[in-house]
Every structure is written in structure tokens, then in C-alpha cells.
Amino acid sequence: MTRRALAVALVGAGLIAGCGGGSGSSATTSPAAKTTSTLPAPEPPPNAEEGTVFVSLGSAKGLGEILVDSTGHTLYAFSGDAGKTSTCTGACAQAWPPLLDENGEPQPSNGTSAARLGTVTRADGGRQVTYSGRPLYTFGGDKLPGDANGNGVSAFGGTWTALKGNGSPAR
């Protein structure tokens, strides 16, 4: 299945799941709860080659425009990284999977800057995508495009933040 077909399937499933409900049901969140949005994933550029990694601008409720991957999932930076060097390995990388690009160079989409995109080589030899020199990660706790449940989380010796299109942390 192509990435585009997978993205369409994920968005469709998210929209169908979001359409349920019934009379008398309501949802509340505590002030400490993270916000979630079910916005559709950004469309990769037409005729994108299979395996191309895109970094796009998308939206997350409460954060505005932030960096997202090809499927619309929030991308995070880790304050525990040493400059351009990823320090998130083992259990950390299982909880916060690095955005890897093994097939070429990451591509900008939907308003991101090509000049800010790059890659670094991880200790395990993988090529991790960077934005403004900061290694990028997704979060296992984000289930739907537009989720930003990892923003502001302190774990594995640092704080995780979603990034704006200019590379600054989203608050």
C-alpha cells in the first residue's frame, strides 16, 4: 500500500470514528489533559515517490500550525539531545520513534522550509530527519493526525516539544 493510500485510509478511519456518539454523551477534560484534534492529514505533493519523507505544516488544537510527518502526526524535538546529535535510543526511541529517512533527502511540504530540513546519522546508523538542526521524533501516545499529547512532556531526561514552522517550540 502506498503512503498516500495509507494516509487516506487512516484519515478515513479517524473521521468515521469521530462521527459516532449519541444523545446525552459528553466529554470533559481536566485542565492538565492534553488536547487532541482529528484534523485530516496533509496531502503529500502529487506524484510523490514511494518512500519519500515529507515534513509539512499541520494543525494541532491549542498549538496552531506545527510540523507534522507525511501522515499528519505531530513532530517533536527533544531538549535532551546534544545539539544535532540524537540521544534518544532504546526505550526512549520505542516511546518516541525517530523520523527516519533511509531513501533520500526529506522534502518540505505545505509551507515548511527546505533550507531548515536535513539529516543526521544516529548511533545505530539510521538517518534521522532534522529541522533547524533539531532531530525530529513522533510520539507513541499520539494516535490520530493532529494529536499533540507529547507536547510539554518531561521524559527520558528532557522535555518534548512540538515545533512551529520557524523551528521554535510550540507553546
Search tags:
9 strands; three-stranded antiparallel beta sheet; 171 residues; 2 helices; 12% helix; alpha+beta; disordered N terminus; three-stranded mixed beta sheet
- Evaluate the radius of gyration: 16 Å
Terminus-to-terminus distance = 36 Å
Number of domains: 1
- Which word captures the global form? globular
Strand sequence of the main sheet, in spatial order? 2-1-4
Helices, by number, come to 2
- How much helix is in the residues? 10-25%
Largest sheet, strands/sense/barrel: 3 strands, mixed
Report the portion of residues in β strands: 15-25%
What class, by secondary structure content?
A: alpha+beta
Number of strands: 9
Poorly predicted runs are 1-39
Mean pLDDT: 79
H and E string: HEEEHEEEEEE
Explain this structure.
The protein is an alpha+beta fold and 171 residues long. The chain has one domain. Helix content is 12%, strand content 22%. The chain has 2 helices and 9 strands; from the N terminus they run H-E-E-E-H-E-E-E-E-E-E. The strands form 3 sheets. The protein has a 3-stranded mixed β-sheet with strand order 2-1-4, with no helix packed on it. Strand 8 and strand 9 form a beta hairpin.
Itemize the secondary structure elements and their pairings.
Elements: H1 3-18, E1 54-60, E2 64-68, E3 76-78, H2 91-95, E4 107-109, E5 117-121, E6 127-131, E7 134-135, E8 154-155, E9 158-162
How do you describe this structure in short?
With 171 residues, this protein is α+β, with helices and mostly antiparallel strands. The chain is 12% helix and 22% strand.
